[in-house]
Amino acid sequence: MNRNPSDPHQPESFVSPYPPPAPRKNWFARHKVLSVLGGLVLLIVVISVATSGGGSTDSPDAAPAGGTAPASAGASATSAESAAAPRPGIGAPARDGKFEFVVRGVRPGGTSIGPDFMAERAQGEFLLVDLTVRNVGDKAQSLDISSQKVLSAQGTEYSPNTAATIQVDDAAVFYEQINPGNALQVTVVYDLPAGTDATQIELHDSVFSGGVTVDLR
């Protein structure tokens, strides 16, 4: 506004010698590169979600394009084969830890074992299990007789009768170590209720091992 010379009280208008500043652009205009990158990232996320969502409708058992069966199918087949594999029986080797066991035979032992004056008498009936135990490890190890369990058809577990086993085998068998590659033959005696159907024996290389089960039928 210009000053009116007839009005001494009107202030003189100030005119800046600098040009007025350019109008400030918005955030997107000032950050074009970031805006483009953000849009690309958002697009990639949307495509990824859509792709994974579409794939989830496929059958999990369907084979890939190359015709190879999925790993889960192979694992299931292996488990099925393991479940169908027959359990070792009399005369077949069965391993647990450092020992390989062979059940040579099972026979009744009556109600008394040993000489008359030292006889061990059964509460029920004795059952004798003849074993061959071979050390397949790399260190000497003793056989723990008490860890060998007989199982009935109902799943009842029976421990050996130590005194009766000593009558059949020398007591040293409880302490004798088996060197790597060597084998020991032993007869383990069980005192079972009369009429018990002993169907399996669970053999262990030590009291802490998982054990292996052998059919006695």
Task: Characterise the protein shown here.
The structure is a single chain. The chain has four helices and ten strands; from the N terminus they run αααββββββαββββ. The chain has 217 residues and is of the alpha+beta class. A four-stranded antiparallel β-sheet has the order 1-2-3-8, covered by helices on one side. Strands 6-5-9-10 form a four-stranded antiparallel β-sheet, with no helix packed on it. Strand 9 and strand 10 form a beta hairpin. It is elongated, with a radius of gyration of 43 Å. The termini are far apart.
Q: Return the average pLDDT rounded to an integer.
A: 79
Given this structure, which CATH class of the domain at 93-215 is correct?
Mainly Beta
What's the β-strand tally?
A: 10
Level-2 CATH architecture of the domain at 93-215: Sandwich
- Based on Cα principal axes, name the global outline: elongated
> Please, how many helices?
4
Helical content class: 10-25%
Q: What fraction strand?
A: 25-35%
Q: Enter the CATH topology name of the domain at 93-215.
A: Immunoglobulin-like
